[in-house]
């Protein structure tokens, strides 16, 4: 079975993946913190593919762009290798990713797909995830995907044979369903979302320049709470510009901005060839757009100084130039 996401293909491991697996799994920053030893050779990785990775619902995390496996993710059940104490209708998700791809939100993208598979296809009622003390990166992935802390177990013996403290987080089907969001166009009364719009562009007169001609989308949860907005404009010659992208503070760092961009790309894939996004000189924002597949396009010097009636600050820095990024739709 294959599961395809915006940037990934999740598929069964193949023996031909052994070299790629060894390339990443030999790194001591990956295995030991999760309780397993670094791979020692291509032959070692091949043996893992033939044994551990041959288990049902175990997937290679493959970059759609390159076709290379760069990590692994799987669903574990009570009758197989697992760490959490589970009932028959519960499962556990485990994962790891090659170091060069850390910080790009790839694993949360994969985890969300397996959550959907567990709850909608496999009939699970609860999903567990566990992490050892010190593995903050893994905990953060769980938090982004809606898992909540459940309990801690002391004196757990890891696969490496040492004794550790393991923390467990879980999400129920009801909680997962409550976290589902919907994106829809805003046809009228766009200004009712002004508080969100001002998060993405803090001067209302600047928003007015593009809001009327722009197409606006809002993301809402089951309670109809506005979570995020996006405004795009047709700049001609097949170019679509993302003029405003904002996520409510309570829903930030949960992948919602990335979901909105993915929706816009899917919605306009047959109408435009390029998506353009402008931002201030902010390293954090640069990292976000690059992780979404954007690359540097061009700079408009002194844009913020010429167009805003007050200094625009970000992380204590006065923004001057508009930095544009682009990607294929």
Can you tell me the CATH topology of the largest domain?
Aminopeptidase
CATH architecture of the largest domain: 3-Layer(aba) Sandwich
Radius of gyration: 22 Å
Report the mean per-residue pLDDT as an integer: 94
Cα shape: elongated
Distance between the termini: 26 Å
**Count of individual helical segments:** 11
Strand runs, count: 17
CATH homologous group name of the largest domain: Gcn5-related N-acetyltransferase (GNAT)
Derived from helix and strand composition plus strand pairing, the structural class reads alpha+beta
Secondary-structure map with pairings?
Layout: E1 3-4, E2 8-11, H1 18-25, H2 31-34, H3 42-50, E3 58-63, E4 69-76, E5 90-97, H4 106-121, E6 126-132, H5 136-144, E7 148-157, E8 163-172, H6 173-178, E9 181-186, H7 194-200, H8 204-211, E10 215-221, E11 226-234, E12 239-247, H9 256-268, E13 274-279, H10 283-291, E14 295-300, H11 303-307, E15 313-314, E16 317-318, E17 322-328
Parallel strand pairs: 5-6, 12-13
Antiparallel strand pairs: 1-2, 2-3, 3-4, 4-5, 6-8, 7-8, 9-10, 10-11, 11-12, 13-17, 14-17, 15-16
Helix pairs in contact: 1-3
Question: How does this structure look, described?
Answer:
By secondary structure, the protein is an alpha+beta fold. It folds into two domains: 3-178, Gcn5-related N-acetyltransferase (GNAT) (Aminopeptidase); 181-328, Gcn5-related N-acetyltransferase (GNAT) (Aminopeptidase, 3-Layer(aba) Sandwich), CATH 3.40.630.30. It is built from eleven helices and 17 strands. It has helices spanning 18-25, 31-34, 42-50, 106-121, 136-144, 173-178, 194-200, 204-211, 256-268, 283-291, 303-307; strands spanning 3-4, 8-11, 58-63, 69-76, 90-97, 126-132, 148-157, 163-172, 181-186, 215-221, 226-234, 239-247, 274-279, 295-300, 313-314, 317-318, 322-328. The chain has an eight-stranded mixed beta sheet with strand order 1-2-3-4-5-6-8-7, sandwiched between helices. Strands 9-10-11-12-13-17-14 form a seven-stranded mixed beta sheet, sandwiched between helices. A two-stranded antiparallel ribbon has the order 15-16. Helix 9 links the parallel strand 12 and strand 13. The longest helix is centred in the middle third of the chain and has 16 residues, at 106-121. The radius of gyration is 22 Å and the shape is elongated. The protein starts with a strand and ends with a strand.
């Amino acid at each position: 079975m294959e599961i395809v996401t915006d940037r990934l293909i999740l598929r069964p491991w193949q023996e031909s993946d052994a070299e790629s697996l060894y390339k990443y799994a030999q790194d001591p920053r990956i295995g030991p913190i999760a309780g397993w030893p670094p791979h020692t050779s291509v032959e070692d990785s091949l043996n893992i593919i033939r044994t551990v990775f041959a288990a049902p619902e175990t997937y290679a995390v493959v970059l759609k762009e390159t076709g290379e496996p760069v990590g692994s993710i799987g669903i574990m059940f009570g009758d197989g290798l697992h760490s959490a104490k589970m009932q028959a209708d519960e499962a556990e998700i485990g994962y790891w990713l090659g170091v060069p791809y850390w910080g790009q939100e790839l694993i949360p993208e994969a985890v969300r797909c397996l959550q959907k598979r567990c709850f909608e296809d496999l009939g699970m009622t609860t999903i567990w995830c566990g992490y050892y003390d010190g593995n903050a990166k893994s905990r953060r992935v769980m938090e982004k995907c809606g898992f909540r802390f459940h309990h801690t177990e002391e004196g757990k013996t890891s696969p490496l044979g040492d004794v550790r403290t393991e923390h467990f987080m879980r999400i129920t089907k009801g909680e997962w369903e409550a976290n589902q969001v919907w994106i829809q166009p805003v046809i009228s009364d766009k200004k009712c979302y002004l508080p969100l719009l001002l998060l993405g562009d803090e001067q209302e007169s600047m928003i007015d320049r593009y809001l009327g001609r722009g197409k606006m989308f809002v993301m809402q949860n089951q309670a109809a709470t506005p979570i995020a907005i996006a405004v795009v404009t047709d700049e001609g010659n097949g170019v679509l510009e993302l003029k405003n992208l904002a996520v409510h503070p309570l829903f930030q760092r949960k992948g919602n901005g990335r979901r909105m961009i993915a929706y816009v790309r899917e919605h306009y894939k047959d109408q435009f060839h390029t998506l353009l996004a402008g931002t201030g000189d902010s390293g954090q924002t640069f990292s976000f757009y690059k992780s979404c597949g954007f690359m540097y396009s061009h700079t408009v010097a002194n844009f913020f100084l010429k167009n805003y009636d007050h200094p625009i600050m970000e992380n204590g820095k006065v923004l001057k130039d508009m930095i544009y990024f682009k990607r294929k739709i």
